[in-house]
Amino acid sequence: MTTRDAVLDIAMVSEHASPLAHLGGVDAGGQNVAVAELAKALAARGHRVVVYTRRDDPDLIARVDTAHGYSVVHVPAGPPRNVPKDELLQYMPAFARFLSERWGQRRPDVAHAHFWMSGLAATAAARRQAVPVVQTFHALGVVKRRHQGREDTSPEDRIRLETNLTRCVDWVAATCTDEVAELVRLGRDPARISVVPCGVDPAEFSDTGPAATRGKPHRIVAVGRLVPRKGFDTVIRAMPRLPSAELVIVGGPDKSELDTDPEAQRLQQIAAHCGVADRVHLYGAIAREEMPMLLRSADVIAATPWYEPFGIVPLEAMSCGVPVVASAVGGMLDTVAADVTGRLIPPRSPRACAAAIAGILTDPTVRTTMGGAGRARVTDRYAWRRVAEDTESVYRTVMEVVR
Ligand code: UDP
Fold this sequence. Notes:
This protein is an alpha/beta fold. It has helices at about 30-45, 90-105, 115-130, 140-150, 160-170, 175-185, 230-240, 260-275, 290-295, 310-320, 330-335, 350-360, 365-380, 385-400; strands at about 10-15, 50-55, 65, 70-75, 110-115, 135, 170-175, 195, 220-225, 245-250, 280-285, 300-305, 325, 340-345. The chain has an 8-stranded mixed beta sheet, with helices on both faces. The protein has a 6-stranded parallel beta sheet with strand order 11-10-9-12-13-14, sandwiched between helices. Strand 7, helix 6 and strand 8 (about 195) form a beta-alpha-beta unit. Helix 7 crosses helix 12. The longest helix has 19 residues, at about 385-400. The radius of gyration is 21 Å and the shape is globular. Uridine-5'-diphosphate (UDP) binds near residues 33, 223, 286, 311 and 313.
């Protein structure tokens, strides 16, 4: 076996985003999916993968060996209950001590940290055990601050600590080209950045198979955590110009809890104010297994955030053969091919959103052609199998560079 074929011992660190978590809540979304799918695809390539995530429930057992060939270790750092991710920084030293102890017993070949706080814990532990560290940020504090201003609840020190990590960590696996520009502005050496996108499983998110039933001639679907920056209000405000369509918004807490969710309330008020409440349906969170069927029920997926570090939902939609109307920001500048697999529009523009969606709804050929092109694009470039191969190359590079 040559070195390039050697089985790797991979330690993934994902402090708040467990690959086993229930999705849809404020802090559970794309990162959980990315860590789970990447761990699974790397394990399928024969590697030993352990994901370290914070123990956030007293009932969690110390180690879970998943059916997908990787293990999850629940790290006792902070109270064993759900704590908002913006309050977790104080527990990172304990997280790092745990990693250091474990890695002292069995040193992994490489550590892959997801999100900035995981990077702090992983680099602290790795220093003692000389483990090379690859960092994926998934989101950057400077971008969040730029868009959210005073609404940003990140710890005071985030930007300083994250910038420092940006400059010092062995390698950065950015998820899109736009992030590379941000990282370089923060002082990162571009020679030690690779772009490795998130992915999708084309078999799970298939373009054939059952579709959920709809209530109107046309259906628009929007999916994401129910937070203002996802820009669901932009699509709601576009609805008066799209009279033949219903809008289904998926994500947030379970449907039974939507009445007490502030963002759900805000969106429902906007829908009422626009006179479209009867055509806007909030579904709450749905299980991942139900997602392909729901996406296939749409004529178009609207992804209209203010900003988006990557955006897995547009890939899932394309994989299901559905066109995407997306804000021209972040990862979607790479994933959505403008006028081929969907349309790119300026963020926060209900008028542009309505025009782009109407163009797809009124022409079935456009819908079919764009859907087919989207499917081809993801199977070509974004299957997790391929993303895992690229990630593995990054690991081998960093192992050589840091040796
Ligand atoms: N998701 C889900 N159920 C929900 C809402 C979202 O399974 O009710 C999944 C969705 O299919 C996608 C992920 O959560 O895989 C969201 O990832 P994305 O990158 O689009 O957004 P993020 O959460 O990272 O902002």
